[in-house]
Amino acid sequence: MRTNDTLRNGCLSLLLILVILVIDQLIKIEVKTHFSLGESVRVTNWFYLSFVENNGMAYGMTFFNKIVLSMFRIIALLAIGWYMCQVVRRKHSVGYLVVLSMIFAGAAGNILDSMFYGLIFDASSPYTISQFVPFGTGYASFLHGKVVDMFYFPLIVTTYPDWMPWKGGEEFVFFAPVFNFADACISVGIVIFFLFYRHEMEDISASFKGYFKKKSHDKHA
After folding, report:
1. Which helix (H) or strand (E) holds 2?
2. Can 149 be counted among the known catalytic residues?
3. pTM of this prediction?
4. What residue numbers bound the domain in which 82 lies?
């Protein structure tokens, strides 16, 4: 029964990851090949499809140069994947595995952009729409591709009061970041994790400690 549960949970996790990746990449490719850079389509007053690209982390944040960020993403993804393998083998709830799968798939979706988009697309610009090109002849080298973002939710658009120092009279947009489906999966997964699975942090710590302790023991055996 334990083996059947492990197989079922593993298949569920793999299926969810694949579904998220397919949805994420289909949306990105559709936007990349049909929108010029900076083009925006109004869906409602509070929802726009706005094509932007970024070199940074989720929601366009940037803390490191591109190659460092890409390597950090890959290492983090491998760590999450390793931990998920441990979770599949243990008696964890299906909900917890779903949350981890969402975070893993979201991270993988953005990594795919960095790894391959520079190799398979020509550059987007405000005046031209990007198209597929022969592999390796695109706008950037491996790991230097830009992440495609498109969801923009300006829920509140107003101006800062005139009396406010430095910002007075400037436009204020509540929730200004432009993001993609992968970012949304990561964010939703993390929120659910901290709301319902915070106690699992102890298990994460124990898993890594046990792994490195075993490695140390094997090394000195």
Report:
1. helix 2-32
2. yes
3. 0.85
4. 1-219
Q: How far is the C-alpha of 37 from the C-alpha of 50, rounded, in Å?
A: 8
Provide φ and ψ at 188, rounded to 5°.
Answer: -65, -40
Beta bridge partners of 178: 152
DSSP letter, residue 25: H
Q: Across the chain, where does the E strand assignment appear? A: 40-44, 47-54, 147-152, 156-159, 171-174, 178-179
Mean pLDDT, the chain, as a whole number?
A: 87
Helices (H), 47-180: 66-89, 94-112, 118-120
Contact call for residues 130 and 32 (beta carbons, < 8 A): yes
* Alpha-carbon separation of residue 197 from 52, 171, 184, 211 (angstroms): 34, 38, 19, 22
Among 149, 162, 203, 218, the one annotated catalytic: 149
Among the listed residues 24, 122, 162, 183, the single catalytic one is 183
Number of independent structural domains in the chain: 1
Summarize pLDDT for 1-24 with one digit per residue, the tens: 467 878 888 999 999 999 999 999
* Burial group, residue 191, by CB count within 10 angstroms (0-12, 13-18, 19+): exposed
